[in-house]
Amino acid sequence: MNFIELQKANEVRVYSRADNQKRTQLQLQVDNEQEYNLSYGQDAVLTILPLIEKEVREMASRRNQHTKRFYWSYIRPIQTGEKTFQGSDTIERTIAGLVAVNLTSSLTKTSTLTSVAQKMANNAFHILHVSHELRKDENLHALKFFSGLVMFVAENTDIFTIDQVNGRENRLFLSDTWRQHVEEAQDNYKTNVSGYEPMVSAPISHTSLLNEEAGYLISKSPLLKHPTRTKEREVLESIVGFTAESNPDFFDYIDRVQKTEYVVNCKLLDILSDYYYERNICFKKFPILPDFEVVEEEAATEIRKRNERRARYDAYKGIEQGPLTEATCSKIKDDHKAKMKDKVNKTKRLLEMANEYAVFERFWYPPFLDNRGRLYPYSSGSLSTQGDEMSKALIQFANKKSVSEAGMKALFNTLANTMGEDKKVMEVKCQVAMTWFAEHIPDFLEGRWDIFFEDSHKEKPLFDEPITALAVCIELTELAKDPNYKCGYINHRDARVSGSSIIGTAMRDKGIMEMTSVLDWNKDGKLGDAYTEAANEAMKLCKKYADEGCEVCATLLSYSEELFCRSVFKHVVMTWCSYGLTDFSLREYNKGVFKWDEELDKEHKTKFDNLMLEALVIALPACSRFLKVFRKVGAEVAKRDGLFSFINPLSKFPVAFTERKMKKERVEVAQPGRIIKLNIIVPTNNIDTMAITNAVAPNVIHSIDAALLYRVSYKCQHDLCFIHDSIGSHADDVEATVAAYASSMMKVAQMDVLNNILEQLGVEDRLELVNTATEEDILSIKDSKHILV
Prior knowledge:
Elements: H1 3-6, E1 11-16, E2 24-29, H2 43-61, H3 65-81, H4 91-104, E3 111-112, H5 113-127, H6 132-135, H7 140-156, E4 160-165, E5 169-174, H8 176-184, H9 231-240, H10 248-258, E6 262-264, H11 266-278, H12 292-317, H13 326-357, E7 367-369, E8 375-377, H14 389-393, E9 395-397, E10 401-402, H15 405-418, H16 426-445, H17 450-455, H18 466-481, E11 486-487, E12 491-494, H19 498-506, H20 510-515, E13 522-523, E14 526-527, H21 530-547, H22 551-557, H23 560-563, H24 566-578, H25 583-593, H26 602-619, H27 621-640, E15 644-647, E16 654-657, E17 660-671, E18 674-687, H28 689-715, E19 721-723, E20 726-729, H29 734-751, H30 753-760, H31 775-780
Antiparallel strand pairs: 1-2, 3-5, 4-5, 6-9, 7-8, 10-11, 12-20, 13-14, 15-16, 17-18, 19-20
């Protein structure tokens, strides 16, 4: 719901109750058929928005020679195309609300005219029935239309001015009067205003991919979010007929996801409120007051790293640029100050939003799908199931359950994962977490949680995710007090190197399946690790060539700890296998991680690149074959018709994507006495062959991991929370969730999914399976305990 829709509420009463938790409460009374999802429901926003709206409406009502232009240029075109707009008494109010919402989202930062016009265009197409004239060219005509609207408001009100910066960008600057308005509401101001927030009433079930009258009750929320931008989706749906009638299982899956009920984790929220507002103690990554010591430290670290990379590049090219200039260093410091301010605003907004939603017994997250079938929540605000660490920790399942012995182990395993123990087998890491918790439970029973806050500020902290660790320990402490305590905490389990694991399983590569824990395999209590195996393989090759007399390899071996290590190979394995990293991109990436000094020069760097590529082919043969075939097929499809489409054999979801070349358009926007020229990037009708070739591999993999989640949901009837290749569930349901994922992965091997896709594409190429995994190995996948960790 946006600001305009907010006006539909019968009564909006905002009040504060200063209690121990300093919790702001919001109460709304709406009709039974309307939802209120708190999009803009906050004191400061409800203060700022009406002021802007009033200003714009007064301007429109003057009816002088300038405002006649406002009517005929901006109100009449929308009025002509309007059919049944709900949420406003007049078109003037609609326009005023539209301007107000989009200007408010930019009040705390300087925005360009183009960016504000783009936001306004997106919102207008979404909430208004605009005329066909405006729909002709969504990128050019609409942006020109709304740029003119913003300029007109700037010329005829004192809200803001438009000035050119650096001779190029036209930026919006608040006037002194309006800057004072913002500063007065700064403490409670909601930054990054979002058009969608969690619902406080149950969403409407979807019946097709493009039905806009589902999900949210008022706002349009089709399952495919941008159907007008991707014509191929509409074509594909008309061919396949992908609807609830023809594919009931898939739409049942969507319905279960969007009707999963959530609540705010009030116990965690109370502790955070106490430490943040009463004791002035914060987590390092989530401050509510600017910490300029941290800013200086982070800026100095970035300057040092950039100087090091600069020196490496100089050594590689044989030139001498010298260190960064004083002006560049100053800009880096300013950027870090701005990032700190953004962190502060984001954390404050997240805590405020959690307080707002804490008064509701339950809320929901309507989802949308991308063209591969991946799920995302429509809500793009602070409190989201796919948000940052604090955001996810503050959300729980509303349907809480008792915790058995298996559930206790699941909670301890979640705690161990936050301590960097995720690469060990469950029994080992569970014991580590239990030992640590037993040492500190006396403090937790007394309400002392300082260790988590203090640890986040250490140079080498114990916890990778201290807020997650705090949330788990809260639940464990409650269970220690009362064994019958019902827990709603969401335990997330992630697939290990999901791209490699999918390719390895589909091609029956036993080595990859063991490295990614698709098959249970461990060495001395540690799970298989694709990153380490690739690094070890590269070092073996280097030793082999050194023994054969290669002096370059002999030199590289003396730097084995810095070069042939997990941290260097992690990014490469992840992107090369899952995202189709090209050989050229790999060589470019290595410029930043290679250890340059007097002994290591360009020849050593080239040899290291070649060793890495050779090691990847040996350690991950299935991935090498997959990339070779699908890049070739991508180029062939791009040249043929530019549309890469297939039906996912695991979920029957219609996958379709294309890439078009972009061009820069110069658009003139005129107002009385002023002309502004805007640079707008728009797509052309020309197919981008290279982009499609590079996008095929990751899109195929992501479509399969999306289908795996569909199959998991189909097998499980308990609450689930999805984040791409990560699945969240109740502590007692973790074992069942892992078993469902393992069973789904077994299906990937049995169905020969990748060759099925190649056959649908109408190409002659086929993948030759590695086939080192036997039928017995394939059947044993369903018993894997570490396929999700």
